[in-house]
Amino acid sequence: MAGIADSGLHDYEVVRLSCDYSRGEFSLELKDPVGQPENLFIGGVLSVEMTRTQPWGEGSYIVSSDIKDCDSGSKLAEIQLNSGDEIRVEYK
């Protein structure tokens, strides 16, 4: 599976997002551009944000993804969908 950074998940389809609060874990079920199932797992989760307002219309495909360093020393994974919605996960 491609990485999150530098839009490595472009054209992957988001199928399901799940979180385990007590363990601080995030998982994302995806389909790659040819329809094969893939899973993305992130541990050490500090926060998860997801919008589903669909400002650009319906859609569940990733148009961009990246990882940024935060001032606190954590990392921020950012995923934008073709609907205009975003998934943001901050983790250690």
What does it look like?
By secondary structure, the protein is an all-beta fold. Helix content is 0%, strand content 52%. It is built from no helices and seven strands. It is globular and about 35 Å long. 17% of the residues are buried. The model has no long low-confidence stretch (mean pLDDT 96).
Straight-line N-to-C gap: 21 Å
Task: Specify the structural class.
Answer: mainly beta
- Residue windows where pLDDT falls under 50 for at least 5 positions: none
Tally of DSSP β-strands: 7
* Main beta sheet strand tally, sense and closure: 4 strands, antiparallel
Strand order of the largest sheet: 4-7-6-5
* pLDDT averaged over residues: 96
Fill in the keyword field for this structure.
four-stranded antiparallel β-sheet, single chain, 0% helix, 52% strand, mainly beta, globular, 92 residues
Write a brief structural summary.
The protein has strands at residues 13-20, 25-31, 37-42, 45-50, 62-69, 75-81, 86-91. The protein is an all-beta fold and 92 residues long.
